[in-house]
Amino acid sequence: MRSVAVLVTFFVLLALIGPVLAPYDPAQIDIPNRLSSPGAGWWLGTDALGRDILSRLLHGARWSLGLAFLISVVGLCLGAVAGLVAALGGRRADWVVMRTTDTFLAFPDLVAAVVIAGVLGAGTGSLIFALTVTGWMRYARVARGIGLSLQNRGYVVQARLAGLSPLAIARWHYLPSLLPSLTVVWTGMFARAILGISALGFLGFGVQPPIPEWGTMLLDARIHMRSTPLQMIWPGLAVVICVLAINLTGDALRDALAEQESRA
Fold first, then answer.
1. What is the spatial distance between Cα 76 and Cα 78, in angstroms, rounded to a whole number?
2. For 186-208, what is the mean pLDDT?
3. Cβ neighbour number for residue 207 with a 10 Å cutoff
4. Which of 112-121, 145-154, 193-202 has the lowest mean pLDDT?
5. 218 φ, ψ to 5°?
6. For residue range 30-84, what is the model confidence (pLDDT) as tens digits?
7. Does the pLDDT at position 212 exceed 60?
8. CA-closest candidate to residue 216, choices 45, 116, 67
9. Which among 237, 217, 232, 221 is positioned nearest to 48, based on CA atoms?
10. Backbone phi, then psi, for 46, in 5-degree steps?
11. What is the C-alpha to C-alpha distance for residues 216 and 231, in angstroms, rounded to an integer?
């Protein structure tokens, strides 16, 4: 767990201060040194336009992780609100929210995101909207389930009899119980958002050039995959290691939560 936490912290710091550490401008074109192998001048080599791959990876971390954080947090807020509305709003509200959730879950996340991004057009805004719209449902299901389980608890019943509004009950009694479970779900959705951003970037629907992003780096390198495979290996490794570390963190949080509940 400690090594995983260190790895996650490393990626967070990379997103925050990576551009400061970059040795070159990520958009600087240097045609005479295009497709250079890793060496003293370029630690990870250069791409087809002579741009330093290390610098582009460091700048790309801010885009890949920053956008994934934004998407997962917005999805968390939307899903938590929808789940609480389903739990506290009565049968009709519950039916509407859950049928909407089931409709979205009927389609694979990435396929739906590609369709939405394709309709809206390539760009960062379309990417954020597509991945947010297809990522809130799991939060809603978890929030609804926990909300329904709390309805008959003594302190919730007393708060209802005391005349507290549903909003106040949700604020003081539901959210403290929701946050641990939603945090575990959030770690998994954060990792899925990174994969989604990279996938849409690779398909050409994500962040547009010349902005460096790990998915667009994979897209740019695909033509030279056979001659210079390291161009694809570096951003691919960044995505894989980052997603793996976040997922392992989520698993550790889930185990810690389960152990705490068993003790209680």
1. 6
2. 92
3. 21
4. 145-154
5. -65, -40
6. 888 898 888 877 889 899 888 999 999 999 998 999 999 999 999 999 999 999 8
7. yes
8. 67
9. 221
10. -125, 160
11. 11
Residue 226, pLDDT score:
86
Give Cα 256 distance to the centre of its chain.
Answer: 22
User: 50: which 2 tokens?
Assistant: 């002579």
How far is Cα 4 from Cα 6, in angstroms, rounded to an integer? 5
Domains of the chain with bracketed CATH:
2-8+43-263 (1.10.3720.10)
Beta carbons of 166 and 211 less than 8 angstroms apart: no
Using a 10 angstrom Cβ sphere, with 0-12 exposed, 13-18 middle and 19 or more buried, the burial of residue 61 is buried
Q: SS3 of 25, please?
A: coil
Q: How far is CA 237 from CA 16, 54, 101, 217, 231, in A?
A: 19, 13, 33, 12, 11
The CA-atom distances, in angstroms, between 249 and each of 59, 78, 163, 237, 254 are 24, 23, 41, 18, 9
**Averaged pLDDT, 125-140:** 92
User: What integer best gives the mean pLDDT of the chain?
Assistant: 87
Count of alpha carbons within 13 angstroms of residue 248, beta-carbon side: 14
* Helices 230-263 and 175-203, packing angle to 10 deg: 170
The burial class, CB within 10 Å (0-12 / 13-18 / 19+), for 160 is middle
pLDDT at 228 over 90: no
Q: What 3-state class would DSSP assign to 211?
A: coil
User: CA 184, CA 76: separation in Å to the nearest integer?
Assistant: 11
What span, in angstroms and rounded, lies between the C-alpha atoms of 131 and 115?
A: 11
For 117-130, how does the pLDDT look when each residue is reduced to its tens digit (9 = 90+)?
A: 989 888 899 999 99
Integer Cα distance of 210 and 1 in angstroms: 37
